[in-house]
Structure formats: C-alpha cells, structure tokens
Write a structure and sequence with these properties.
The protein is built from 17 helices and 13 strands. A hairpin with a 5-residue loop joins strand 9 and strand 10. Helix 7 runs antiparallel to helix 8, helix 7 runs antiparallel to helix 12 and helix 15 runs antiparallel to helix 16. It starts with 7 loop residues before the first strand and ends with a helix. It is an alpha+beta fold. The strands form two sheets. Strands 1, 2, 5, 6, 7, 8, 9, 10, 11, 12 and 13 form an eleven-stranded antiparallel β-sheet that branches. The protein has a two-stranded antiparallel sheet with strand order 3-4.
Length: 584
C-alpha cells in the first residue's frame, strides 16, 4: 500500500506509547532491510553527525473567519537561515513532512514532497523578510508577490493571523537492500505544538519516501508499517492535530447566525438560542476590534449588534423579560451601535479610497492625498473613543448581564408557554408557543411591512420613505436568517436572493446619500482646520458628483427590484416558504 505524503501516525494517547510504536516500526523495517541513520553534513563544521535530524518550525495563517480554509487552501510560514517563505497550497496536498538537512537533489524533493516546483496549480511560494509570524499581517505587506497576488480577492480586507505553530524534529533513516543500495528512506517526524513558551508533543508522523528505481521496495516498506500495532494511516494533516491540541476546530468562527433551533422548540428558548449566537459573535470580535487588526472585526461586531436589536423588536416579547428589562437592553445595544458608527463610517471611506481615486476624471489621484490624511487622522481620534467605550464597565457589564439572562432562558428558566403577537400583528393572529409558529408569524408580519410600505412609494416620495423601507427590509432579512434552520433551504434561497437584490438597491441609494453628506462635512472641517488645498476640494466635489449619479441610478432601479421581490410571484414564494417550507 502507499500511505500518501502524510504517512502513518501513532494511535496512542501519550508520548510513551508513541515512542513504543516508532521503535516497533524500526524493528519491523529492520527485519527486511538494513536500517542506517542518515548522516547530514554540518555547514559549520563540515563533518557528519549521527543520526540525521532537522528541526522545522511552521506557522499556519488564515483570516479570523477562515477564508483560506473555506476556499480549500492553507498558508504556511517557514522561517529559515537562508531565507523565510510563505507557502500557499491546496489543503488536500498540505501536511507533507519537511525535507531534512542532509538530503539533497532529487532525493530531497522526493522526501520533502513539498518543494516549490511540486506546488499545485493554486499554490505559490513567496520569500519574505522581517516577517513576524506571531502577529497579524495585512495583505498590503505581500503586495507584488505571487502569494499576495493569489490571495488579494479572497482575503482583503482581512488580515492574516497566526492560527497554530509547530516545531517538527525529523529523524531520517536509509533502508538498504542486500547490495547495500539505498532503496527508500524512513522518516520519523516528532511535532510539538508551540504556544508561548510551552511546547506540547503531538503524535509523530512516520513516512516512507521512495527512491527512484525501487518502487517495489517502497511499497513493501509501507506494508510493513501498516502491520505495526499502534500505527494507522495519517488521515489528516499535522495542522489538524495542532488545532485539536489548541481546543479548536477549522472554521470555528463565522458571522452567520446558524443557531441550533428546531420547529418544536419553545419560542422563548429558540429566541434565547438565537440571541446567544449573536452575543457569541459580538464577544468574539471585541479583542480584534481593540487590537485594530482589520476593519472586519468592527464590521462583524456591528452586524451582531444590529441583528440583536432587530431580534429584540421581532420576538423580544416572547422571551419572558419585563418591559423594563426589554427596554433597557434595547437602549444599551443602540448605544453600542452609536458608539461604533463614526469609526466604521471612516473605515468605509478609507477602504474605498483607492478605487475612488482611480475613478477620478477631472482630478488626479494625488489631489486626494490631503483628504486621505485627514480621514486617517479623524479615524485615529474616533477609534480611541471607540476603544474607551468598549473597555468601560457599561459595555462589559451589558454583555455579561445579557449572557446571564439568555443562558437562564435557554435552560428553560423563563418564557411563557404561549405568546401573543406584537401590536403590529392583525387582531386574532398569534405566534403560538413553538419556534415554528413564531417563525411563520413574525416573518409574515415583517414581509407585510415591506410589501405595504414599498407599494406606497412613488416617484414623488421623499428619500426618507426609501430609507425607512431599507430598515424594514433589513429586519425581514434578519428574520429569514434567524429562522433559516426551520425553512426549506432551496425555497429560502429564492426569497433571500430577491430580497438581497432589493436591499442592494436601497443600500446604494442610502449609502451614497450618507457619503455625500459626510464628504461635505469633512470638506468643511478641512477648511476650518486650514488643511484643504483647492485641488483637493475640487477632487472631493467630483467624488460627490459621482455619488449623486449612482444615487439617481439606484432610485431609477427601485421599482423593478421591488416588483421582483414583492410582486405576485414574490408573494407566492414567501407564502410557500412559510406555509410548507418548514423543514423540522
């Protein structure tokens, strides 16, 4: 058999058992081959050492939300005296053991199995200097390199953060035939998970590496290892072992709601489960916001807060909280949303800055540099205020108290057996006591609001009517997300797809209006501070003109988008989803 590049691993649960298995493997191979330790040449001393052993440190990187892993990729950082490098590879081909010192030429490539020329089509190798694997890195630091080029669209604007680090000591043995010819190599790699100053042993990897011209001997050596008690084929790469030792799992963070609710679950408990999932998202992003790693931490935190506020409006009355408690938490999460808004608004300007500058026609990109400097200065000021707010007892107390309330609700400590519909539900309609009934009733009400208010909008309607419709559409979108586990996924995808296209139109209309107002306010502030050259103001004027044109186009497209979502066919899709699309 051929075990593949990952080879075999020891089944024992502790290092002594692993070493016993490795020793048994050597004995099994020695029964049919002459086994000798590989000698490697010391570059400093110029003499052999015995046995050959090489240490390789590897740090795996990904974004906080696992964008590389979800795309089937891994990114490794390998430091070295002769130069450090980043290796991007398909996840399926990752996990090959490092090539040890003392093995050169074609044999080295065969043993390592990870030489740059063997990288898959989606792979790339990029040398790096001055890289600190222990800290996050924005993609701009890799600009111009093959890894950076392949990751640009996939990763930006997220930073690459270290996920796990291992150090692997590999010992290499030659397997000789009766003619004393090397017919294969046997490598024992002993990895250790590095966390701070601590190193935790991980199960060893045992690999047979063939030598050209002796395929039968390689297969025989593999069969001998397969028969050794305590060894089994290594089905997963070393990265998986490292994550398990850290108590993590791949893709263990997502900003999606994906709450574990069922149709028969009591409404109060289902509501608590959804809100706890949202609180987990908020809490998970706070450290990244405070460290200012990348702008998506703040974005995801804000989404968690907005969803929480919408959930309280949508089904807060079923949770069993008093009106005073409900009003308190609603007000406090609004405060968090307001606290985060100035920094996020400035982030949006800066994230779009390069594209905006390239789109100038009358002005030159350089004309906007004073505007960029002013935005960055304002952002630093607003971020300091945001960080102070997130470190206050008000915020930490809010999240702790909210979690305590929700945990009690999830355990069944509160909540009515049956609930009344909110005031906006027509008389005689009720949400009932189950999550399924709650989902159908509240989603139907949210859709009715969108359909009614959208139908009332005409070409003469003020901008505020579209802004209000955007809010109602967002509440409906959140309702569909909250209760997605209860609906048929295909039917839900159709409704959400139409709704998303309507939201994109409404969002373009509102966002451009907000940005126009903000740019005008920033221009006035720059003038007051004496930091507004005439060419910069002219360039900013060109930007606002472009935004106004985009807003007019979105307004003209509204009627078509709304009809596609809330017309006769759209209403039938929503009715089918709520009537017959509940899955469990």
């Amino acid at each position: 058999m051929n075990s593949g590049p990952a080879g075999f691993t020891a089944d024992g649960i502790d290092p002594p058992a692993w070493e016993e298995a490795a020793a048994a493997a050597l004995d099994a191979l020695a029964a049919e081959f002459s086994v000798t330790a590989e000698r490697r040449v010391s570059a400093a001393a110029g003499r052999g050492t015995d046995p050959a052993s090489a240490d390789q440190r590897t740090t795996w990187l990904d974004t906080f939300d696992w964008r590389l892993y979800k795309a089937g990729l891994t990114l490794e950082y390998l430091p070295g005296r002769g130069g450090s490098e980043l290796r991007l590879a398909d996840r399926a081909s990752a996990g090959r053991p490092p090539g040890p010192a003392g093995v050169t030429g074609g044999d080295a490539a065969a043993v390592a199995g990870s030489a740059p020329e063997r990288a898959p089509d989606r792979g790339a190798v990029q040398p790096v200097t001055g890289w600190q694997a222990s800290r996050p890195h924005l993609l701009a630091e890799l600009a111009g390199g093959p890894v950076g080029a392949r990751l640009a669209r996939l990763v930006a604007p997220r930073a690459l953060v270290p996920v796990a680090t291992t150090t692997v000591t590999t010992t290499v043995y030659r397997l000789l035939n009766a003619d004393s010819k090397t017919v294969a190599r046997f490598m024992i790699s002993r990895p250790r998970l590095v966390s701070g100053r601590h190193a935790t042993p991980l199960p060893p990897r045992l690999v047979i590496a063939g030598v050209r011209g002796y395929p039968a001997q390689e297969r025989r050596a593999d069969r001998l290892l397969a028969a050794v008690p305590g060894l089994s084929p290594a089905a997963e790469p070393l990265f998986a072992d490292a994550l398990r030792a850290l108590g993590r799992r791949p893709a263990d963070y997502s900003n999606k709601v994906d709450a574990a609710i069922t149709r028969a679950m009591p409404a109060a408990r289902a509501g608590a489960v959804i809100l706890l999932r949202l609180l987990d998202t908020i809490d998970a992003n706070v450290p990244g916001v405070l460290a200012d790693i990348d702008t998506e931490f703040l974005h995801d935190l804000r989404v968690g807060v907005r969803r929480t506020r919408s959930a309280l409006k949508l089904f807060g009355d079923v949770l069993g909280l008093t009106r005073k408690e409900l009003a308190f938490f609603a007000a406090e999460f609004k405060w968090v949303g307001d606290l985060t808004t100035p920094t996020r608004d400035l982030d949006v300007h800066l994230l779009d800055f390069e594209e905006t500058a390239r789109g100038l026609a009358a002005a030159k990109p350089d004309d906007l540099e004073p505007f960029r400097a002013f935005l960055e200065q304002r952002r630093r000021k607003e971020f300091r205020a945001l960080a102070r707010g997130l470190r206050t007892a008000r915020f930490t107390g809010l999240t702790a108290d909210w979690r305590k309330k929700l945990v009690a609700l999830q355990a069944g400590g509160a909540g009515p057996a049956a609930v009344s519909a909110p005031r906006s539900v027509p008389s005689g309609r009720s949400a009932g006591g189950s999550a399924g009934m709650l989902a159908a009733e509240r989603t139907r009400v949210a859709f009715a609001k969108v359909a009614r208010r959208g139908a009332a909008i005409t070409t003469d309607s003020p901008a505020e009517s579209l802004h209000d419709l955007r809010k109602r559409a967002k509440e409906l979108r959140y309702a569909l997300e909250f209760f997605a586990p209860l609906h048929d996924s295909a039917e839900s995808a159709k409704v959400v797809g139409d709704l998303k296209r309507l939201q994109d139109c409404l969002g373009e209309f509102q966002d451009t209006e907000i940005q126009i107002a903000e740019i005008r306010a920033l221009a006035a502030a720059m003038l007051a501070a004496g930091e507004a050259p005439a060419v910069t103001l002219l360039a900013m004027g060109e930007i606002t003109a472009g935004l106004a044109a985009r807003q007019r186009a979105a307004r003209a497209d509204f009627e078509r988008r709304f009809a596609a979502f809330a017309g006769i066919d759209g209403q039938r899709r929503v009715s089918a989803l709520l009537r017959g699309g509940v899955s469990r």
